[in-house]
Amino acid sequence: MRFITYLILALIALALVIIGFANRAIVTLTLLPAEFVPFTKYNFSYELPLYMVVFGGIAAGILFGFFWEWMREHKHRSEATVNRRERALLAQELEKIKADRQKGKDEILALLDDGTARTS
């Protein structure tokens, strides 16, 4: 199974390298259209290979998707935290009730009631 995973990852990497070599043309990436230059007095403009623009857009989309999903799941994570705390409190309360129930009993009877005694 691990071999198949590495094989698929190698094929994806090979495809990305081929796409990168096929799209080496230099493109100009500008922040704003030329019509806005009089208003802003400056316009960022970069010359990059096309594959960097494409792969950068893909990477930015993936990062945005991860962030969006993390924010969407916040409700579920907070609910799980509340449930975990409640479970811990209930476990402590159960142990306290068991200890109170076993008070004053013989040790052997307490072990039998607790269910931790070994049966041979």
User: What is the average of the pLDDT values?
Assistant: 88
Shape: elongated
How many DSSP E strands?
2
Distance between the ends: 44 Å
Helix content: over 70%
Provide the structure class. Answer: mainly alpha
Structural commentary:
With 120 residues, this protein is mostly helical. It folds into 2 domains: 55 residues, no CATH class; 40 residues, no CATH class. 71% of the residues lie in helices and 8% in strands. It has a two-stranded antiparallel sheet. The two termini are 44 Å apart.
In short:
The chain is mostly helical.
Features:
single chain; 120 residues; elongated; 5 helices; 8% strand; 71% helix; two-stranded antiparallel ribbon; mainly alpha
Helices, strands, pairings?
Blueprint: H1 2-22, E1 26-30, H2 37-40, E2 45-49, H3 50-72, H4 74-102, H5 107-114
Antiparallel strand pairs: 1-2
